[in-house]
Specification:
The complex is a heterotetramer.
Chain A lengths: L2 H11 L5 H29 L4 H21 L3 H8 L1 H4 L2 H14 L5 H8 L5 H23 L6
Chain C lengths: L1 E2 L2 E3 L5 E9 L14 E2 L10 H19 L9 E5 L6 H10 L3 E3 L6 H14 L6 E7 L1 H8 L15 E2 L2 E8 L7 E6 L14 H19 L9 E4 L3 H14 L8 E3 H5 L10 E2 L1 H18 L4 E9 L3 H5 L6 E9 L2
Parallel strand pairs in C: 3-4, 5-6, 5-7, 8-13, 11-12, 11-14
Antiparallel strand pairs in C: 1-2, 2-10, 3-9, 7-9, 10-15, 14-15
Helix pairs in contact in C: 1-2, 5-6
Chain D lengths: L1 H22 L5 H17 L3 H8 L1 H4 L3 H18 L1 H10 L3 H16 L7
Helix pairs in contact in D: 2-5, 5-6
Classes of the chains: A mainly alpha, B alpha/beta, C alpha/beta, D mainly alpha.
Chain lengths: ~150, ~150, ~325, ~120
């Protein structure tokens, strides 16, 4: 049996991801997390001196704090198995990636283990965030200088 | 061994409580954030010598607004407004437009217009409480909050 | 007669006793009753996962030895392996047991490859008591091959759950009343180009089929001669493919083929396609299968343990997943 | 109060995009998140992300796309003031509260918790 023949056989037999169900679940989970985030944002706006713009920072920090608790108590994994991208895409997923790696590498000590491996999974997101921010800002600056667009 | 299990089950029970508590807080938040506001329409609190009729018309004519709270105080005009759901995409544009209109109508006043939730909330409070003392300070604070960037 | 990996053991080395240990989660397994020791704590009350892993293998070895009233000083060889980098749990276990040690690695097929090695040493009169087996610990292996344990990623239905278990068998020269190792087949590495590390069953099924065919052909036996043909950890998906491949090769294994990985957690959908890991096959082979043979339920059994020989490095570099399967035939007579 | 509804819907839809990248494009979580971050950054470059935040609130600030947006926004704000030099200095000035929070809470979690293999 050659590779191609086997690949078709494997495709036939391996259960497909239930796309529709996964999408619904991702929508509900992602929506739910953002809804909780919105409640927190409103909370900060109502009781503290934050505007819509400035409230997003403490909101994100609070969400990551919640993600830390859920990860530590072993619940985030279950939410992610149910919600898929709905749990990975919100900032809580980023928090989960950092927190889970930290907990995991605690056994190697705080410097080499936690410090060295904290961004094992989330590091690529930071890299591409910073790199693309630089590229986009540079391109926009050039375009503005040439008068193609304005700020 | 046994002791450890007891501690563990305690934590698991705690966990359930924690989730319930979070839901409770969320519920409280809905209630709190829902009731501290003025309803639809234009609410003007004039604490100055300026004529507020003009402003009222400007706000009423704009169909994208749901509610407006405008406060006139000495040389300041601070307005907080709620924008219709899909007009929120153009929030900045609406703010700029209205600011320009108001500045044309009231050249003597310093105009601050914002669709920010916080401003709406604060202005609602001031109008509802008919606050007079420290009004100056409170308005200054609103303006300074808006200037913060991050 | 040794030819192209086909082995026949004339002296029929015997499995005098076995020892199986498992983690707390493995209580959910239908084989739970058969395990010799089940820990309350997944780290065996030690600090790190890897220490717990080593302790688990060590305890299994001690249990297996104690059943024949032996001590580590009576054992001639320690043939064990696991899936952690450089097999450190096995190394630490060997360090505390002080039995002459040969580290074995065939990924999840280590249970059978070590058994074959033990039988060879016994057959050639070099050993009177060899310990063979393997173990795996969920946390230590998941972290090694996949993501941190608490990381939330949605696993497909084809993914398997690494079992926390260790199984050790004591291989001695012929002994009456216990299962005997009569034949074996050393597998070839089969790679049909699959690349999905979350569908290992599909990667390993062709290797299992290749070894089964070679075993049947090399020893001139028929699939119906066996009371039980048990694969190691193909899981639900891999086992379905395995049965499909058998049908295409015109082998009828519908009545006697089973998979240890698929049944390990009682087909609980929470565990997706079932169990995997070196501990999965060794725990089932050396507890359930061994006990059933002792009871007389099965007389002739073919064990095919499968292993996928990948590393996190190799699949991140886009390599395919090479797989192996070793077979051993046990008879009660 | 329609902000809650829009937050739910927009947040859900961004997650659905992520799920499609998982299941249809067969990408790993890391690749998917990187694509979303870059997308957020580009959307901010053409000035679409801020209106989305105005529209959906946390529905746009909680998904990882906002991470690219906030970094780009900071860099562009500096660039607007100081030109090309601003792009560089802006990069060093902007931070995301997400990163600092994740570092801090990650460390706290490492002190408090231990990984469990429960299912």
């Amino acid at each position: 049996m050659d590779d191609k023949k086997y690949a078709t056989l494997e495709q036939e037999i391996s259960p497909k991801p239930p796309l529709f169900q996964n999408i619904i679940r991702a929508f509900l989970t992602g929506g739910m997390i953002c809804l909780v985030g919105q409640f927190i944002a409103v909370f900060y706006m109502t009781f503290f001196d934050f505007t819509e713009r400035t409230a997003s920072n403490p909101t994100v920090a609070t969400m990551i704090f919640i993600a830390m608790l859920l990860t530590g108590f072993g619940q985030y994994r279950k939410i992610a198995q149910f919600g898929g991208a709905g749990a990975a895409v919100p900032i809580t997923g980023f928090g989960n990636a950092v927190v889970s790696a930290s907990i995991e590498h605690k056994s190697e000590g705080y410097v080499l283990g936690v410090g060295g491996n904290m961004f094992k999974l989330a590091g690529s997101v930071i890299l591409f965030g910073v790199a693309s921010a630089f590229a986009v800002a540079l391109i926009k600056t050039i375009l503005v200088k040439f008068g193609v667009v304005s700020w | 061994m046994n002791k450890k299990r007891i501690v563990l089950t305690y934590f698991y029970k705690k966990e359930g409580n924690a989730i319930r508590n979070v839901l409770l807080y969320v519920f409280i938040l809905i209630v709190l954030s829902g009731c501290a506001r003025l309803g639809e329409g234009v609410h003007i609190y004039n604490h100055s010598t300026a004529d507020s009729k003009l402003a009222e018309r400007i706000f009423e004519e704009d169909e994208r607004l749901v509610s407006t709270n405008a406060i006139f105080h000495n040389d300041d005009l601070v307005a907080g407004m709620t924008v219709k759901t899909f007009s929120r995409f153009h929030k900045e544009k609406i703010e700029k437009e209205l600011k320009k209109k108001l500045e044309e109508s009231y050249p003597n006043l310093t105009v601050t217009v914002s669709a920010d939730n916080k401003v709406v909330h604060k202005t609602s409070q001031i109008i509802q409480d008919k606050e007079e003392e420290q009004l100056d300070e409170k308005l200054k604070k609103i303006v300074s909050l808006l200037k913060e960037e991050t | 007669m040794v030819k192209k990996g086909i082995m026949t053991f004339q002296t029929t080395p015997s499995i005098a006793s076995t020892g199986v240990t498992a983690g707390p989660l493995e209580r959910k397994s239908p084989f739970n009753e058969q395990f010799d020791k089940v820990y309350e704590d997944e780290r065996s009350d030690l600090t790190t996962n890897e220490q717990g892993h080593a302790k688990m293998i060590e305890d299994a070895s001690m249990i297996a030895l104690s059943k024949i009233d032996a001590t580590p000083s009576d054992a001639d060889y320690l043939l064990i392996g696991d899936l952690v980098n450089q097999m450190t749990p096995s190394n630490f276990c060997a360090s505390s047991l002080q039995i002459p040690y040969l580290g074995m690695f065939a990924a999840c097929a280590t249970s059978v490859s070590s058994l074959l090695m033990g039988a060879l040493l016994t057959e050639s009169n070099l050993s009177t008591c060899a310990l063979a087996g393997a173990g795996s610990q969920h946390n230590a292996i998941e972290r090694q091959f996949r993501y941190p344990v608490e990381y939330g990623s949605q696993k497909p239905k084809t993914a398997q759950w690494t079992a926390t278990a260790a199984g050790i068998a004591v291989v001695t020269p012929f002994k009456a009343g216990v299962p005997k190792i009569t034949k074996g087949t050393v597998g070839r590495v089969i790679d049909l180009g699959t690349t999905d590390p979350l569908n290992m069953g599909a990667a390993m099924a062709p290797a299992a089929m290749d070894t089964l065919q070679r075993h049947l052909k090399g020893h001139r036996t028929k699939e119906s001669d066996y009371d039980l043909i048990m694969t190691g950890d193909l899981g639900e998906t891999g086992f379905t493919i395995f049965k499909e491949l058998a049908t295409r090769q015109e082998l009828d294994i519908s009545s006697n083929a089973r998979d240890a990985g698929e049944e390990f957690y009682g087909k609980d959908p929470k565990f997706l396609a079932g169990a995997s890991g070196a501990g999965c096959s060794s725990a089932v082979y050396f507890s359930y299968v061994y006990n059933e043979m002792m009871k007389g339920t099965y007389n002739k059994v073919l064990l095919i343990a499968t292993g996928s020989l990948l590393s996190p490095l190799s699949y991140q570099q886009g390599e395919t997943i090479p797989c192996i399967a070793h077979a051993v035939e046990l008879t009660m007579k | 109060m329609s902000i809650f509804i829009t937050a739910f819907i927009v947040g859900g839809l961004i997650s659905v995009v992520g799920q499609l990248l998982f299941d249809v494009a067969k990408l790993t979580p890391a690749h998917t998140l990187c694509i979303l971050v870059v997308t957020g950054s580009i959307l901010d470059g053409i000035g679409w992300y801020e209106p989305l935040i105005d529209f959906a609130g946390a529905g746009a600030t909680i998904p990882i796309t906002s991470f690219g947006n906030s970094l780009t926004h900071g860099a562009m704000a500096e660039a607007e003031k100081h030109g090309f030099v601003g792009v560089l200095t802006g990069m060093f000035e902007v931070t995301s509260s997400g990163i600092s929070a994740a570092i801090l809470f990650g460390f706290i979690a490492a002190v408090i918790f231990k990984a469990k293999g429960k299912n």
